[in-house]
Amino acid sequence: MTRINENFLKLKAGYLFPEIARRVNAFCEASPEAKVIRLGIGDVTEPLPPAIVAAMHSAVDEMASAESFRGYGPEQGYAFLREKIASVDYGERGIDISADEIFVSDGSKCDTGNILDIFGSDNVVAVTDPVYPVYVDTNVMAGRTGEADSSGRYEGLVYLPVTAENSFTPALPEQHVDLIYLCYPNNPTGTVATRETLKQWVDYALAEDAVILFDAAYEAYITDPEIPHSIYEIEGARRCAIEFRSFSKNAGFTGTRCALTVVPKDVTGTSSTGERTPLHQLWNRRHSTKFNGVPYIVQRGAEAAYSTEGRQQIRDLVDFYLTNARLLREGLEAVGITVYGGVNAPYVWLKAPEGLSSWDFFDQLLQQAHLVGTPGSGFGASGEGYFRLSAFNSRANVEEAVTRLQRSFS
Ligand code: MLT
Predict the structure, then answer these.
(1) Which of 56, 107, 183, 349 is the residue whose CA sits 20 to 30 A from 137?
(2) Is the CB of 42 under 6 A from ligand 1?
(3) How far is the CA of 380 from the centre of ligand 1 (A)?
(4) Which own/partner pairs from 45-48 qualify as long-range (CB within 8 Å, at least 24 positions apart)?
(5) Which ligand 1 atom sits closest to the C-alpha of 217?
(6) Where a domain ends, among 269, 289, 308?
(7) What is the pLDDT of residues 237-282, one digit of tens each?
(8) Final residue of a domain: which of 308, 329, 358?
């Protein structure tokens, strides 16, 4: 008899985005004439930038010749890409991260889940609420939680509410925690953390000997020059933080797959006998055992994101989605709806109409306006009553969505 990992049985419903897809597919089958606009999952719609496409074509040609063919690459990523990341993403901001502290991977979703392999199962974990569901579900799967209560909160996790009432700024935990997930610019609320807020977290982590798992997948969307792009802009973060970044949302790699995780050599954890061990050593071991590296062709594409043309093309792409976010925000504000986010992030966060739950509003928008968003409650109990709209779509669809939203709210 083969026993299953029973922690999976604790998971609530399906993963959020497949559940949305299920409802949308059912609606489309029942109403095939409806022109549904999808502002649900944050999936890019615009083609890869030309500089990236050209680099990938030329890498394909290299693979076609015996002289330049490549087999297995370094699990951690090719030096040509790691060095670019270190010098451009970090060096140009005056941040000291070396190429060998960067691990190239196939996605931040995977890495934020996989990172749990290197941490003991008795760590106390804090998440904001609402939160990107992967952080919670992977902890449930790994057995770090008890059962969920009726609001969907799991026993054993420390939830830090982020709502309009606290300006979407989580309070520091009232108890000791060992691992803290932070995501800025934030998914799902589209809000950002100031330097002062991040400093409080770094100071907390250093004082409590905790580790911050900092998801910066949306950093390219920061428009406010005062907002930090990296946790390592904060003094002391090299000793207490791991950072995740991605090419998905800036360079359009959601289908192409390339991301990176930074594990500074100074960040450590403790064994049961009290010995300090660098997390870099553990992650390197984990990564090279369970992962065989991102395809060469994809890494050459990612490298091109750092060329002069590549950087400009990525800027243009991000600006395109930011304009969509502005249209959504302004369109809703024009009919008196209070919206959050959408200035330094590709997500707009709003309150569902009075008296409607997040899923009620989801169903209403789908049925009446043929629009798909993401119910706030799918990101956590404190997201109940909120709704997320993604700015990742064509301009024409976003303009049409604004018209339909305005009609729904009038
Ligand atoms: C989202 O919609 O929250 C994201 O697209 C999910 C992801 O990046 O995995």
Answers:
(1) 349
(2) yes
(3) 15
(4) 45/392, 45/393, 45/394, 46/252, 46/317, 46/320, 46/321, 46/394, 47/252, 48/251, 48/252, 48/253, 48/256, 48/301
(5) 8
(6) 308
(7) 999 999 999 999 999 999 999 999 999 999 999 999 999 999 999 9
(8) 308
